[in-house]
């Protein structure tokens, strides 16, 4: 329970209405119930403010007029809401201490205030920081480290020689440090795997979603810099480097040796894969399901996916794509013929 | 072992041949062995009927003529086969009871006839229905529920506050209820995660494949309605709503706040992601690997992916895509020039 | 520690320099340290040879001249390096023996020299070969087999009736043998799952990455032949057959009943899915993110994805795709008009 006064203090906001009102949960404008705090950050939802059952709303100065319920005025309502919603997150953390079924190698260095759940495995020479939470069935390979206050959720597999920074969250069923996919044929044409002896290094404040795969480097390391945010089912191959503050949305994927600058945004399903290493400048945003096969050297927004249409229109047009080059040449030819005619009309003696 | 008479009874079919023949397994037309039941539902495979080693076949009236083996005539051979094949499924269910290594919180409400395997975890305040099967290493977070006769396979992670209906199947290594991917930048440009305090609600008779991720809602819930069928490696982001009886094939994915109507079919690799919420009408079928970025309001079939061709043809044409707008304008210009000429030819005085 | 003489012997190479130099690790040309062995296989990195801190380099005859450090001359430097790097792989294998928490059914047949980790589950009638490594939380369903010296990493789920060959590696969080996605509607329009009673059969020397899903066949089997290499997050549906020595890069996916020939290469994100079964000839290479919807009968290279461009160019051109058919027809019309004019000019009496 938080009073509006307390909420205003934490969000550097100003209360309009009764400061003593108590908030016991959070809800959206449309579905909030009595006792809930809600927020308005997008004008699209302005009209819902009139009918909300929330007990109070976080909003910006421009929306104060005609607000029918108590409000807290802040600069960034979404950010303020994020701060307060954390208080009402009902997730129960793993119990304090080390579960009796956890298997901690005696050579591992353990911080204090740990929360290690059932069947957790910590390998030899690992370093586990203060306040770390490892949920059930997490295994941390030998020589790996997990920084202070990082939370690793159920069934995550961290291979050996992987460094994870502090204040990170790694969601369920994610694999970090599996072998990069390096294959070469031997003299008999039999495919051989190239040993992957590099590491994975992940910075601080990194979020990794569920079902993600981040492979170790072949010789050098795969590197995820500080404050990178990675959504579910993203795939990051060997020797990639992801710059700080970049966002990789669901199912985006980097082939081996892709370098992504700082503050990049990959929308869902983006794939970056070239013949050799590919380098993407900082500040690049790439639209959903775009295929990037070569370097991008300038910040900006890029896209490449085709759009849906009804099946009949699609079928009629998609097959024409393979005529495009011929069409371009024929169009040029037609233009030339017409130009010639215009010339002849203007000067009949120019005809050969 | 089932006799043809018994099979006919269960499938409301009619036996042609010896009713006492016993069936001990199932097989395809091409690979069935003596003792197997097979089926014919697609005319494409009609010719295989002559050479099959099966002991009997399920087929429709139209294929009875010249059938060389005993047959059971039914309205829908595939559906009838599905019913009978279930009898020969060799999967061993988790042993009855609660494995001594399972960790069940004392506040959880447990139904009867449970099958809880090794290292299963059931959190506080959970409700587990009758006949539920939780395979090894499944963990169910606090305040979650699993309906009657639902089967959850190995290493599935169900987070807290997730509701799963009855008669569902959830395959291995799937994660349900991980945080939605809500990111906002603070005043210093540092990316912050928006707490995800909504739930996931899954209806009855839902199938969820292996390696799937279904995220919890930000404030409101992510909802999967009854009888939805979800294939492997599908990703469903926060606040999506999937209508009843919809089918999502392998690797299809919904970005945050996508609403899918009833009886939709997403083929493999489809991605739906817009700038804001996207809404798809009921009865919409979307072709493989199509990108959908805006609402679809009418039922019907839609596609958008480009097709493969040999590399040389592809390379020659794909680069022309960026000339398309210019080509369209130039073509219009050429048409106008020609029209003008026709006009002049018809009426020379119209020339300026 | 290996001397250059020993390395030369194992790689059938020739030492240039001091044969007694000892190698204690491996590194890339750019980042190797004193004591490391490196290699040069791509002329792109030739210039890095001058500045490397490596103590020796594997290279081919053509690069011997001016090599500033001791060298071992071999035919295929990458392959030779792969062989030696294996010696320096720091992964710790699961401890020898059977962990006391492993649950091995008494009917399972076990080979010798096993390494079965914590909480491993081996079902009834399983066959586990010699030297097999099953890492923590791996479960092997009833009637399944794992061949000699195969290594299965943490949290992998192998369902029942799955055969895995010898000398395979299966990475973390992968699921093999989940039900194929076969759905049919009953007479009331309710979707029903078709029982999947086929198996998965995987050959020898197969690599399977992390987070992969390989589904069991509906009636016949899903088959992965010898020496296939599968990257992370690949999806292989029911009844697929993957020919020997094929390579499936990250996030590529095969819908049900796709047959892939021998020595195929699918780049990242490729999707193969047709209305019915699709068959791809041996020796086919498919470019990244290409959608293949029909048979490919000739070896060669194929592609189909569109390329990225800046958002403004993309937006201007992508919408024109739906005019392509109309443009083609109009272009043809314009050509016809011009031809008619040429004919009339050449022979004015031909005008009607």
Describe the structure.
The structure is a homotrimer of 352-residue chains. Chain A has 352 residues and is an alpha/beta fold. Helices cover 14% and strands 28% of the residues of chain A. Chain A is built from four helices and 40 strands. Chain A has an eleven-stranded parallel β-sheet with strand order 8-11-14-17-20-25-28-31-34-37-39, with no helix packed on it. A ten-stranded parallel β-sheet of chain A has the order 9-12-15-18-21-26-29-32-35-38, with no helix packed on it. In chain A, β22 (183-185) and β23 (191-193) form a beta hairpin. The longest helix of chain A is centred in the last third of the chain and has 23 residues, at 324-346. The N and C termini of chain A lie far apart (93 Å). The mean pLDDT of chain A is 95. Chains A and B meet through α2, β40, α3 and α4 of A and β23, β38, β39, α3 and α4 of B.
What can be said about this structure in brief?
Three copies of one chain form a homotrimer. Chain A is α/β, with parallel strands linked by helices and 352 residues long.
Shape annotation of chain A = flat
Strand portion of chain A, in percent? 25-35%
* Oligomeric description of these chains: homotrimer
Q: What ranges of chain A have pLDDT less than 50 throughout 5 or more consecutive residues? A: none
Number of helices of chain A: 4
Major β-sheet strand ordering of chain A:
8-11-14-17-20-25-28-31-34-37-39
Average pLDDT for all residues of chain A:
95
- SS elements, strand count of chain A: 40
Q: What percent of the residues of chain A sit in helical stretches (DSSP H or I)?
A: 10-25%
């Amino acid at each position: 329970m938080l009073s509006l006064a307390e909420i205003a203090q934490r969000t550097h906001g100003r209360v309009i209405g009764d400061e003593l009102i108590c908030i016991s949960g959070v809800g959206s404008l449309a579905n909030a119930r009595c006792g809930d705090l809600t927020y308005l950050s997008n004008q699209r939802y302005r009209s819902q403010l009139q009918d909300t059952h929330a007990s109070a709303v976080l909003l910006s100065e421009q929306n104060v007029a005609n607000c029918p319920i108590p409000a807290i005025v802040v600069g960034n309502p979404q950010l303020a809401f994020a701060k307060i919603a954390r208080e009402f997150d009902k997730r129960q953390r793993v119990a304090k201490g080390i579960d009796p079924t956890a298997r901690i190698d005696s050579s591992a260095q353990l911080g204090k205030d740990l929360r290690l759940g059932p069947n957790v495995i910590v390998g030899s020479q690992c370093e586990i920081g203060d306040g770390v939470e490892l949920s059930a069935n997490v295994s941390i390979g030998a020589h790996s480290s997990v920084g202070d206050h990082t939370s690793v959720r159920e069934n995550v597999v961290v291979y050996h020689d992987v460094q994870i920074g502090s204040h990170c969250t790694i969601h369920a069923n994610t694999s970090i440090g599996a072998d990069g996919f390096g294959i070469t044929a031997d003299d008999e044409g039999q495919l051989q795997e190239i040993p992957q002896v590099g590491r994975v290094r992940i910075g601080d404040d990194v979020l990794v979603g569920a079902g993600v795969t981040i492979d170790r480097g072949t010789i050098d390391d795969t590197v995820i810099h500080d404050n990178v945010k990675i959504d579910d089912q993203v795939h990051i191959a060997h020797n990639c480097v992801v710059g700080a503050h970049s966002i990789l949305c669901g199912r985006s994927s980097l082939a081996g040796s892709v370098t992504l600058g700082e503050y990049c945004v990959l929308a869902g399903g983006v794939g970056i894969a070239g013949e050799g290493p590919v380098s993407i400048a900082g500040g690049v945003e790439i639209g959903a399901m775009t295929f990037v096969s070569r370097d991008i050297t300038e910040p900006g927004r890029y896209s490449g996916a085709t759009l849906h249409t009804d099946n009949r229109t699609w079928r009629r047009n998609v097959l024409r794509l393979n005529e495009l080059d011929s069409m371009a040449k024929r169009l040029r030819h037609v233009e030339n013929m017409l130009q010639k005619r215009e010339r002849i009309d203007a000067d009949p003696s120019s005809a050969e």
